[in-house]
Amino acid sequence: MASSARWRSNWAGNVRYRAARCHRPASVPQLQRLVARARQIRAAGTGHSFSALADTAGDLVTLSGLAPRVRADAERGTVTVSAGLRYADITGPLRAAGLALPNLASLPHVSVAGAVATGSHGSGDGCGSLAAAVSGLELVTASGDLARLSRDSHGGQFDAFVVSLGALGIVTRLTLDTVPAFEVSQHVYEDLPLEQVAGHFDEITASGYSVSLFTTWRRPRVFQAWLKRRTGQPGGPPPGPGWLGGRPASQPRHPIPGLPAAHCTGQLGVPGPWDERLPHFRPDAVPSAGAELQSEYLLPRAAAVRGLRALDQVAAELAPVVQVCEIRTLAADRLWLSPGYQRASAAFHFTWAADPAAVTRAMALIEAQLEPLAPRPHWGKLFGISPRALAGRYPRLPDFGQLMTRWDPDGKFRNELLERYLLPAGPDSHP
Prior knowledge:
Blueprint: E1 21-23, H1 28-37, E2 41-43, E3 59-61, E4 70-73, E5 78-82, H2 87-96, E6 99-100, H3 112-117, E7 134-140, E8 146-150, H4 151-154, H5 158-162, E9 170-177, E10 179-180, E11 183-193, H6 194-199, H7 201-205, E12 210-215, E13 221-230, E14 247-248, E15 272-273, E16 293-300, H8 304-312, H9 315-318, E17 322-330, E18 345-352, H10 356-370, E19 376-377, H11 387-391, H12 397-407, H13 416-422
Parallel strand pairs: 1-3, 2-3
Antiparallel strand pairs: 4-5, 5-9, 6-10, 7-8, 7-9, 11-13, 11-14, 11-15, 12-13, 12-17, 16-18, 16-19, 17-18
């Protein structure tokens, strides 16, 4: 097993990993030996975290060298996958088995283990985070041993291991719940006035299986609404022309103004398989904008309109830095560190220009505006909320800190970000 010079930075290039060594083990036993002898070690996934979540001064690991296994079980309604695989790698075998995942993120390029560990999500009133589908996992512990846990066998404690930020071990395999395969049609509407969106928010998010609203904050409007509707979805046909002051798009669109729609999944109401419609971007195309930074804040669903109005008050300050802001909803889950823990949520996702200083100022402004609404940030995105404020928004955070010290007493899987936010005595400072 040779060390590699790869994975020296994250996908966006804003985090330069400090790792002394980078590794790509070819098997789980190789990974176990590597973990057993390491003083500090972290897994990097596909590098789509914009925070320093994967950073370490010790050893950095990518699981992309593990055997790519996808085992679909139609009888049990599950699929078991190697943790290093991307969602784009597992959707084809799932579809061939007549199965589907309940939801997908906007990018199929991200690794399954990385998206699960950070509480990443798609969209939909009835859809939880991607991690909510996990019913079993296998991980390498600090001693190098292999542990297997399941929802059925480990009760409520299992909910701590799913969204664990890599703090309890390196996950090597995941079992996900599936549903029968289904088709989706995607409809895009343009130029919905912001007041119409605020006044009909629940109606809008209920109009599709998955709904995303896009704004640049440059005008008081949602310039695109993406409605992904399951074939045969109850509630009649999609909205017609003039819906809430908007209009159907006349041709395919990209959610970031000016970028080619060819990078995006099929639109104009043409039905297609679930995995070719639920993501925004095609797996063989450039995801999102490329040169960018990202932040995301999840509010209680009941506070969605208040959040929308609070951000509109500072729209003039946000607009010069924002490439696009996406607003989505998701169902509650029971995973201790998930931003959706025990509350249905409305997520405000910001794709920023690649200007770290300007983004830091914009985040401070957003966090001040949203603070009365108790926002929870996406762990893999940029944020500036203090550990003390964040601790009050995660009821199980103290329990997780205790679990982390039991499973990893020497701090092998920790880094500065985890110590700051997950340990009870962590200092009240910013990431």
